[in-house]
Design brief:
TIM Barrel; alpha/beta; about 40% helix; eight-stranded parallel beta sheet; two-stranded antiparallel sheet; homodimer
Chain lengths: ~270, ~270
């Protein structure tokens, strides 16, 4: 089953465009998990159990596992093994390198860790993206227009053909011969969604920035869904993970995920 | 001691602008190390022992350790511990992300692994670079103009002010308030070195692409050195690591490193 098929199946089964980002920040873990042997893993397992029927995907963020040092790898591996096989996993590592190096990143994330999809930085161009797209059953989300202020510095700079991020979107369509490419588009960039969706009618958009960063959910869903009313993965991390710092962290995460999923569904049907 | 000071001291002591990239590809390890308990570590320790008096820095490539799975982290850690403390270590991971995520990458590479410097992808702009530059004693090499063909796709695209990579170089200078920023400039882009050096007279340039990729060493050294005749780290990986597939792999690596170091020195003095 390809990433796209798995994503559609999960989105349909859970009636959800919600992707939960797994960013286990040690400084924010609830006190209730801190005396566990592996607090991060304990925390994430409970979070996954509490939300797995509400999401279309999980997005573990590699940085937060890497910062754990030698416990990082086994913790990430055990987290991935705890995610139900029907839910696709996008590892957020924003890698980008050429040739042999890219092949080793692809092996690391797709083969050794078994991720269904990966975020990739397009700055170095086609030969930094192709080794990932060569895994035809895996998803590759290219950074296009991100939700942060720094998007002005390069992504939104004007070329003769328009801003750089539109060129990234055009190239993504050109390189998408296996139908496994997607784009990362920040929810704070609601003004860009109409043009990006016209340019890339079939690419899934991974959309961070609706929670803490204050993106406009209604505009994102209205302008960003594809012709089938899908093709969006609305990501929330901190708002769900740290909904409560108490013993009820998993229940609070579930409630918040439920609300956000329902808000998204309400936008889809209006 | 800052990264810049450590780099200058090592370059002076070893009279070298040569940086050796540590890209331990399992498919290319010499037969002689394959029956070791940890072939990668055994291989790299011998390589480091054979070259440590010839280099100004080592550049371990994270992908090749990551692809080892759970052995990756302890192998990378043990490799770093084997590098003499006087030689600076640049981890090549080309990370780039914002806020809390960038802080976790910085912690992972600078604090937990103890690297002296890191390669960073600038696509997401200032807030994806600032958390790394905030470590004032550490070096941050921004991808500017890379050696691969894909550099045409985005890096060399024209803005009103010139190609995108020149804007990256200008921004690097602007953001370099702590004097710890550098640029990655591919050796195959010899035509760009004069302008980049004018624009960024004091930034160190990390230069891959002289070996397998066929960059013009003489032009790079002539145009790329700073006013003190330094400021360059000429990287070679495969050409040195896999100079011989036999039991003499370390001696062969040393000979190749010596030749390349001497070629660079010859270009510096002409």
């Amino acid at each position: 089953m390809t990433f796209q098929e798995k994503l559609r199946a999960a989105a349909t089964q859970n009636q959800s465009l919600l992707c939960v980002g797994l960013d286990p920040d040690q400084a924010q873990l609830p006190a209730a998990v801190r005396d566990q042997d592996n607090p991060t893993l304990h925390f994430l397992k409970h979070l996954i159990d509490a939300t797995a029927d509400l999401v279309c995907a999980y997005k573990p963020n590699f940085a937060f596992f890497g910062a754990l040092g030698e416990r990082g790898w086994p913790t990430l591996k055990a987290t991935l093994e705890h995610i139900p096989p029907s839910i696709p996993v996008i590892i957020d590592a924003k890698v980008g390198d050429i040739g042999n190096t890219a092949e080793h990143y692809a092996r690391m994330f797709f083969e050794v860790l078994g991720a269904d999809a990966l975020t990739v930085n397009p700055y170095m161009g086609r030969d930094a993206v192709a080794p990932f797209l060569a895994y035809r059953d895996k998803g590759v989300f290219l950074l296009c227009l991100t939700s942060n202020k720094g998007a002005e510095d390069f992504e939104q700079q004007q070329l003769a053909e328009g801003p750089l991020y539109l060129r990234v979107a055009r190239k993504a369509c050109e390189w998408n011969t296996a139908g496994n490419c997607g784009l990362v588009v920040g929810a704070t960039q609601a003004g860009a969604f109409t043009e990006l969706r016209q340019l890339a009618p079939d690419l899934p958009f991974l959309v961070p920035g609706v929670g803490a960063q204050g993106g406009d959910l209604e505009a994102v869903v209205r302008k960003g869904t594809d012709t089938l009313g899908g093709g969006l993965l609305i990501n929330a991390s901190r708002a769900i993970l740290y909904a409560s710092g108490g013993v009820d962290f998993a229940e609070a995460a579930r409630r918040t995920a439920q609300q956000l999923r329902q808000q998204i569904e309400a936008c889809r049907t209006t």
